[in-house]
Amino acid sequence: MTQFFIKRIYKPADLSDGYRVLVDRLWPRGISKEKASLDEWAKDIAPSTDLRKWFAHDPAKFTEFAERYISEVEQNPETPNNIANWRSHDKVTLLYGARDEANNEAAVLQKYLS
User: 26, 48, 71, 89: which could join 19 in a potential S-S bond, CB 3.0 to 4.6 Å?
Assistant: First the structure.
């Protein structure tokens, strides 16, 4: 069974991360592609631009953000392919750029996938 973890992309890559997936729509500032050490950039499953702008990383909006984001994930035709690919690995680390380590799209996805 696949284990899903989350990690801020600004933390160093590690072999123990397993399959590394960036789940942000925008490329994180100051991170080179080499430093990111990604296996996949799943920007198609990231929150929509409108949802991301509405949320604006406001912790007071996180519960509603999570609900709206899961709705987007479930309506996205790419979701089954992404999940099937991820589940083919023992360990997947969902990477995000947000400063808030608890209230971000990777945390929502991790909970959804578990």
Answer: 89
